[in-house]
Fold this sequence. Notes:
- The protein has helices at residues 4-9, 60-72, 170-187, 227-246, 292-300, 306-315, 321-328, 331-340, 347-364, 376-387, 393-406, 412-418, 427-440, 442-449, 456-466, 473-485; strands at 10-21, 76-77, 80-81, 84-87, 97-100, 107-108, 111-115, 121-133, 137-139, 148-150, 157-163, 199-209, 219-224, 254-259, 264-270, 280-281, 288-289.
- With 486 residues, it is α+β, with helices and mostly antiparallel strands.
- The protein folds into 2 domains: 4-294, no CATH class; 427-485, Arc Repressor Mutant, subunit A (Orthogonal Bundle), CATH 1.10.10.410.
- The strands form 4 sheets. Strands 1, 2, 6, 7, 8, 11, 12, 13, 14 and 15 form a 10-stranded mixed beta sheet that branches.
- It is elongated, with a radius of gyration of 31 Å.
- The termini are far apart.
- Adenosine-5'-diphosphate (ADP) binds next to strand 1, strand 11 and strand 12.
Amino acid sequence: MLSEELKNKYQLVIGLEVHAQLMTESKMFAADANQYGEAPNTQISVITLGHPGTLPKVNRKAITYAIKMGLACNSEITRHNVLARKNYFYPDLPKGYQLTQDKGPICVGGTVPIQLPDGTKKEVILNRVHMEEDAGKSIHLAEEVDTLVDFNRAGTPLIEIVTEPDLHSPEEAYAFLAEVKKLVKYLDVCDGNMEEGSLRCDANVSVMLKGATELGKKVEVKNMNSFRNVFRAIEHEHERLIGLIEQGIEVISETRTFDANTGLTASMRTKEDLNDYRYFPEPDLSPVVVSDEWLNSVKATMPILPRDLHKKFVEEFGLPHYDASFLTESKDVAMWFNELCSKTQNYKAASNWMMGPVKSSLNEQSLHMDDFPISTDSFVALIALVDDGKVSYTAASQNLYPEMLKSTTESPLEIAQRLNLIQESDESSLKPIVEEVLAANAAKVKEYKSGKKGLMGLFMGQVMKKSQGKADPKVATKLLTELLEN
Ligand code: ADP
Ligand code: MG
């Protein structure tokens, strides 16, 4: 562990490269299915395998998805897009080249808003978002002598989101990844699943003396399959790089691999033996031209973004930022809540229900909001029962709500009646109970009248007990006060 003093002497600099697999039905340049988890080498056409004489064809949906991401990040959209061959040899690369955009990415610049756990906000500056295709996968099995290769993934459309060296802590990197995941899911362009490799991240890390004008030499860390591991890898590199510099050892530009078991990184290859990829425009594809018409149609179908919903929840519904952040964390929750609030005015109560009972039950039953059994109409009725004083919040959350999760045919009112949860708010039926309680506590009533007002709680407790928890506290208080004060 380095001292805080040493850490403060240096500025940590991070740039992230995030690959997101696009959820198109077919591949980037061929009609084979873009489907994860199928038997190896079953989703491979001759085009994907690059057989002689085959011709690629661009998947317009993949381009549309890339444009969506660019629009969501306020990037500038390139109209004339050239796909280039990046030539290299690797066993999982059937064509011997990967189609990518080496110059002129489809989305130039842009920003992604992040918020740190301490509330700090920042707009992370993007360098670009470009399109490319994925490679296949080499598989090393313990029981096999040979390395196996599965080409199913080859040709899967990807976007690569590249930041400027604009991040300065593992926390910022983590928040950025979380925001990118949220964005692609809101946009419905990628499922954001890091374990299945739909979202992959390389971290470029360097350190420099605070105040220096030139960035330090960077290392690029690969093979991190969770946000947490990206965080750990950056933390490790931060310390390692400062340690090297402090010892007078020169940092070399290299690619390193992260080991999740040890939390350490190890050198894979130095950037000195730089590949020459001999990029050239793909001769079998004409450039992809994004027309005004195409761009406008994508703009017209942009879904509402998390930051817009956050703003709406704060400004229109008057909710605290904390609530809005929780409610926009996932799209299905945000959309459901948004619908709920089109049917009730009690936004804060709705939010409290979401952050409390709904969240707990989703966690307990590992449910997604998409599978939530209660309709927004029923939920509004539930909120109204509490607002109208018909059912106490305690009874509603502990008895009525769990029952609503099980039964979708009865209305909340019917369930409340069946479970005998309706509060006695009718004065004439509560009055005898209140009178009975006071008569049974004559001595305490005397004490109350001589000034011991704190006894009100005791009387209330007895009324609640006698009414089996169904007395409306407001009405009971009113009756008690009336009877005690004269
Ligand atoms: P390369 O040519 O090695 O791929 P690029 O200039 O394309 O490098 O940048 C790749 C990523 O590395 C980008 O996210 C960029 O922001 C980041 N990056 C570049 N220089 C540095 C640096 N000195 N420290 C940290 N990150 C950096
Ligand atoms: Mg790179």
